[in-house]
């Protein structure tokens, strides 16, 4: 096959894979938003069919042959050198998807899905009953399958690398561990210094905030961020998420709480940050590359908007007037700075998903350390509760009273998602590194944010990060944007500066 016809074949296959993936996403979005409950069984069958079709396309001989004709292999992922930059990157992405899917036997995929489904059901019951022993056999099976999967996928140094690579391409456990260890050394004393100070008053957040006004304010902020409602929507769900249904269709969701408008607001800004990434791919980016490059980079975008922008002083100096117009009685006697302090309250807490931005990464390190020990076979699943409590004491200074509020609080391990957790904290580190560079490129960035100009930052993120989709790996992106590899220092400087001002440390 000639280069041109092999490329045409690959583009056609990529297009169909992308159409199928977006169709699957539409089914998933509908299931969480408007689907009537009785439809659940057939919806599951529809989703399984779409997944099977995608798998068939990705592992097809047609795709494999076209890659081979272009000289693409694991050792030569860009194929022969006479192709355009976009084509070369596209070949690498397709080769990666093709080999990963080929390496894992179909029998294993089915076993993994069945185990995840029964483990998740068992986890829900075990957590409710605070009964770790009931969950243990499922956890043991999940760990066994994770080790098996790592063997199928292959790795150079250690099994964990193969699992991490699924979510954070080319990242290594060793590099993550190094960054996290350095971070913990500085973060633990910072948390101690903060919690020794008086906590800000956030009681006004618990007044009653009518939902329609919350929705209007959320849409106002999303629009200011640059979220384009002509290619998106904001709907209500139980657990908020953002999903891409097409190159020009990126949806966000939220959940409103009458007694705390900040829960929904920050979830809207967070999911909006994910959405801007997906809306920002260059128009000429091939379908095979129209995706976030990793979960960590995706999370860097959501967390930058949520925490670094949405919880900044200039943001509230600008947006407080609008908020007070919407909620005049609830915010009587409250100032912009009062809101800024309240939304940045730091406390040692047990539950990861409610943690503030300072303690959050410690919750992740705890999980990462245990996962790494499990995959190195230094820790047995049955010893997780004790190990969890030890790590919690060491990193967070508190011990959960129950396993339900400790090692059984998250769904991830029941789903077989070992290797997923670190991407949350990597998002914090990447985000701070990108923002350090953005601030040096845009010296008046914070004046702009204070004047309501979020478009300049959005433009910078689009040009430097979003436009490339998954054409660059996380490491390539960091190198190109920041000129250095993963490092904890930008995140630490950001936290120290912000919280010294907030808590007068
Ligand atoms: Zn997120």
Q: Which features characterize this protein?
A:
single chain, mainly alpha
Question: Could you characterize the architecture of this molecule?
Answer:
- This protein has 505 residues and is mainly α.
- Helices cover 62% and strands 3% of the residues.
- The chain has 20 helices and three strands.
- Strands 1-3-2 form a three-stranded mixed beta sheet.
- A hairpin with a 2-residue loop joins strand 2 (242-246) and strand 3.
- Helix 5 (106-128) packs antiparallel against helix 6 (132-153), helix 14 packs antiparallel against helix 15 (384-396) and helix 16 packs across helix 20 (489-503).
- The longest helix is centred in the N-terminal third of the chain and has 31 residues, at 3-33.
- The protein is globular and about 75 Å long.
- The mean pLDDT is 96.
- The chain binds zinc ion (ZN).
- Zinc ion is lined by residues 270, 274, 299, 302.
